[in-house]
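Course assignment 3, question 2. Fill in each field.
Student: A.L.
Task: Predict the tertiary structure for the chain below.
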Amino acid sequence: MKIKDIVNRDIVTLTNCEHEPIHIPGKIQPHGFLIGVTSNWKIDFCTENISVFLDLLHTQVLGKDFAAVFGANAEKQILEYINEDKIQDVFPLEIELFNKLFQISIHKSHDIYVLEAEPQFPGKEKLADVYTQTIQFVTQMNNTKSLKDLCALVAQGTREITGYDRVMIYRFDEQYNGEVFAENCREDLEPFLGLHYPHTDIPAQARELYIKNQLRLIVDIDYKPVPIYTVDDKEGKNLDLSLSILRSTSPIHVEYLKNMGVGATLTISLIHHDRLWGLIACHHYSEKNISPEIRLAAKLQGQFITSQIDIRQSNDENINAQKTNVAFEQLTSLDLPILQNSLETIAAMPQLLELCNAAGVSIVSREKIYKNGLTPSDEKIIALIEAITNKFPNEIFVTNKISDDFSETVEDSSFAGIIYHSLGNNDHIIWYRPETISEINWGGDPEKSIIKDSNGLHPRNSFNIWKQIVKNQSSNWKQYEINAAVKYAHALHNQLILIMLSEEEEKYRSQSELLKETNSELENINWISTHDLQEPLRKIQLITSKMLSELDVISTESISNSLQRVSKSANRMSGLLEDILKYTRIKNTRDKLEEVDLNKILKSTIKEMHETIAESKAIIEHENLPEVHAIRFLMRQLFINILQNSIKYASSERQPKIVITASQEPVLIHDRYKVYCHWVCFSDNGIGFEQQYAESIFKVFTRLHTQEQYTGSGVGLALCKKIMQAVGGDIRAEGKPNQGVDIIIYFPCDPEDTLLAL
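Answer field:
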């Protein structure tokens, strides 16, 4: 019978080093021996070092029946162990071979049962001890809150259980670069905590094996690999050792550990959601092996971490997520008017930044940009939105390194990360984060993890701290921050729709009111033209007819009196026509509103009405008046008409007195569909009126008294009403008979008033 070894002697090059077949090395570590048996229990594989442990040569074993070599009782024990589904179980099989005690780990590699035997550990740890240590650890674990605290506890516990010089919890990022996340080591050792290591330190095929086989031992880094021999009955015959505990390690990895000064290692995989999340990496600076009980306890430490990752990460993020929820609730509970100007208030709210821990935010709506915090210029915002919508048509785009996608658009920009969300109808919202220049400490230059020289490939031999400065990127957006931004973007989108619908409703309502008022005006104008204008015309006709019929007998004095009466009637007609002209010329000019200081308007009005005020002996008192959003010349006309009305309807029983008060600060005054920010009140002590006429007095040409009692056309207050409508405000009256009247005018909000009022 011919036998051969299956040692893999392929040369590793720069081209194939990431595909080094480490799962089929064809050799093992020497602290145990390996046998591979077929399904009919023929020994098909055996390591050369079986003679070190038993009085047998591998050449004497290969090709023989297992029972013929080791006895039927040993075969029976192994079969019972296999049939009880204990392959790869937590405890190896304890068995006696040739009067020597061994522990055998068994797994199946394709159609071969792989038996790996190690001598029984003397004075092995009892299960009760392992149980006690585990209970103590669980108690301590429950006192930790964050994932980092848990990992630090695991590092400490693993070192106490195993006795290794250094225990590290090694965590991978998305690219499998590693970070020493937690560590416990001898006091005399230089700590590695916080150091980063490139993904090339643990290549892809090694990571794959860590997923398949969660515990890996190297007992002595200076070991001499032991070849595996097999019956030479098939070309390319090999043995997959992915699940082996004795498998020999890649020579590049061994050299890597030697360069670090390590003498022995234990590595436990941390698998989370079927992905290699990290490792428990134990280093010892001399030869070291541990019993199956200690291996189990160490493996349990890793399972404690992986079972807690989701919970602890949730706990770590929960506080910040709660702040985000509070910010969202505060934003969505704002009692804002359904107006486009409310976006100014929303953008200024600090909660809009707290929502996703951003440094700046911009809202673009109806070609207007509302900004807060760290934001680019308006031009850059427009350019960025155009670039995003062209390249990523979806409604959301998130990045912490904007230069990767839009290097030209954001050149020399002060921000690096954004959350963009479309709000529909060419409206957009963007949150910004600035560039975070960070320093990463690598355990050696990551660009030199593999070195090629005249002797082949080697791992780096320098592990001095190598600092890397990372620029052009912000801190990563957490998923809960992205979710909060998306959630609020939808809420804001709904708000914009409500604003649009409200404006349309207001538009149609205003048009309806305007049409109604216009019809009423036409009726009143028709009435005044057929009644009030006809009355002076009839008088003129009557007087002139009488004069013409009495030309021969009429005296000069009588002619003079008649002409004065004609002139008076003509003036009455002229006044009526002038009032009609003024009234019909006032139109809605809200787009021409400006800041108007009412103190100046009142001062010029009193000066202009000086003679009228003096004749009536009226007293005018006033407090400081606000600046409002209005039209200057209309405000002057408004004040003149209100003051004239108060003086005209003064009581004969007392001296006229007009007191003018006003709101000193902007305050939101909700009234059905409208919102006002300032009010001014003219209070007089005149004749007053019944409150049932509070609305009719503002109708054109409406009079509560006869022409003989009080002169006038009835246009004055109607003109005031139309002026306030023109500037988007309102006017109201409250009267008490024989006590006086309060005329209250309300002014619309401008964006700044709205912010101040809030």
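Instructor remarks: The longest helix spans residues 479-530. The radius of gyration is 47 Å.
Grade: pending
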